[in-house]
Design goal:
The complex is a heterodimer of chains A (about 110) and B (about 110). Chain A has about 110 residues and is mainly β. Chain A has no helices and 11 strands. Chain B has no helices and 11 strands. In chain B, a hairpin with a 2-residue loop joins strand 5 and strand 6 (about 55). Chain B starts with a strand and ends with a strand. The chains are: A mainly beta (about 110), B mainly beta (about 110).
């Protein structure tokens, strides 16, 4: 059974600070890793994908992957109130495998 | 390009009834996945269809079934509804084996 674990939160971060979201996964064969953002009452939307060890930056977002530790993280710099949402970590195996999602971390950015 | 379209958006059923939900993927996407989302369990994978064939299946009872048509549109059916089936049912499409899913707005099912 593939598992993806996230701290459910809520994680409260002051505006302008760095928000750090973490995720661990159980399947060592996982090859692709994703962060989805879900606003309350809305459907998830993809914000970051990462496929190899290290950091990947996109604007204010940085995804970090450590396959040896089976650990994925998402950093949000200069956090804004509009970043308040639930962040879902998702993991995919090889080939046509589907995605396994964590239960999400509820992030609150305090003005 | 139109996004993923799900119908109906909201529905209320009673225990024992059955329900059919519909999903139209993004044009050109041949893969359609279905997820159940509840506050307690999060996003749980139901099944995925590709070119009218079920490619992956989650750990749900046989009351949950789906199919895909030649135009890539998909339906899922839940028979003999239980109170615990109340949830948001999300459909997502993707290109090929990519992990980048595009979700519809969901169908919110309430079972009374």
């Amino acid at each position: 059974q593939k598992e993806v674990e996230q701290n459910s939160g809520p994680l409260s971060v002051p505006e302008g600070a760095i928000a750090s979201l973490n995720c661990t996964y159980s399947d060592r064969g996982s090859q692709s890793f994703f962060w989805y953002r879900q606003y309350s009452g809305k459907s998830p939307e993809l914000i970051m994908s990462i496929y190899s060890n290290g950091d990947k930056e996109d604007g204010r977002f940085t995804a970090q992957l450590n396959k040896a530790s089976q650990y994925v993280s998402l950093l949000i710099r200069d956090s804004q109130p509009s970043d308040s949402a639930t962040y879902l970590c998702a993991v995919k195996g090889g080939g046509a495998d589907g995605l396994t999602f964590g239960k999400g971390t509820h992030l609150i950015i305090q003005p | 390009k139109a996004g993923v379209t799900q119908t109906p958006r909201y529905l209320i059923k009673t225990r024992g009834q059955q329900v059919t939900l519909s999903c139209s993927p993004i044009s050109g996407h041949r893969s359609v996945s279905w997820y159940q989302q509840t506050p307690g369990q999060g996003l749980q994978f139901l099944f995925e269809y590709f070119s009218e064939t079920q490619r992956n299946k989650g750990n749900f009872p046989g009351r949950f079934s789906g199919r895909q048509f030649s135009n890539s549109r998909s339906e899922m059916n839940v028979s003999t509804l239980e109170l615990g089936d109340s949830a948001l049912y999300l459909c997502a499409s993707r290109q090929g084996a990519s992990g980048e899913l595009f979700f519809g707005e969901g169908s919110r099912l309430t079972v009374l």
